[in-house]
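Need tokens for this chain, all 388 residues.
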Amino acid sequence: MAKRVFWIVLDSAGCGGAPDAAAFGDEGSDTFGTCYKSGKLNIPNMEKMGMRNIEGTSFFAPREDVEGCYCRMHEKSMGKDTTVGHWEMAGMVSPKPLPTYYDGFPQEILDKLSDATGRGIICNKTYSGTEVIKDYGEEHCRTGALIVYTSADSVMQIAAHEDVVPIEELYSICRKARKIMQGDHGVGRIIARPFEGEWPYKRTVRRHDFSLVPPRETVLDALKAEGFPVIGVGKIYDIFAGKSVMFSYSNKGNEANMVRTIDIADADFEGLCYVNLVDTDMIYGHRRDIEGYTNALNTADRQIGELMEKMGPEDMLIITADHGCDPGYKGTDHTREDVPCLIWGPGLKKGVDLGTRNTYADQGATIAEYFGLSYRGDGESFLSEIME
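Here are the structure tokens for all 388 residues:
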């Protein structure tokens, strides 16, 4: 039988307790803990894999019949965003934080972007994506100027109405911005944020991320080099700027992404299926919607159960997160948290507590060893601890 790894990232589903949370202004944040406290969290499959047994969590409540292996993971990279989180789990720690622009982008950057696109720039502030189009959408529609804004993350976001700036033009603008934002200004992502309709306007599903290329090799590169297919579902292709993602299915929302993943489980291949479920973060975390976030986890858990039923004797399932975005916390930004890591497979040991790991990169190292690669990246494999 072929070896397959299904690697699912519940975007922003941290489990609190990061030792350096206070340095990021996030002391006390706990995404999973908030959802547990809501009283509406129903995740029997993740609990069966060991979620409630992860040490040091606010919901620590050991159960006897655990069928998976489990741990909590510190983030070693200096950040709390999607890009560095995924890069780290894939084997590359980012010791230097990617640049952020809490006070807006320098005028020299705005001038370069305006010259390259032939359009003016408005806003240039830290803003909520849903609020920025309410406050600046009418001016944009009247003048054609681009709404440029940022957040606590290393991002430049460019919003435009699809009737004013056609979607392909917006993508072209973001590609030009990506070329400008390099070196010291190399933000993790340039994000196209199209919207439509009449005021107060609605964002469309045609968002697209233009990421930095990972500066070093990840486990994705190592797998591709040895001939193993790397399949990306959701934002994975964007996060890695397409590097070594050989087959890609773009983000259609969590439920559709999981349906695609379950379909992929019917395919005959040997390699990696890497999945990002972004709704928890994008739709519910940033909007501080506890009920919505909890329901999204419940739905993901149900679909994870469907995927488990399709897994073969040599398949491995990993459930993790890339950072936090506590829907019960102050503000609207990501939160610096530890993340859970659950590992399950018909051929793996049951009930193994892997403790607390010092980096997400241990996941990439474990996947590499599972496929017999020499690559370990910045992590240490725990394969020997989970294999029968």
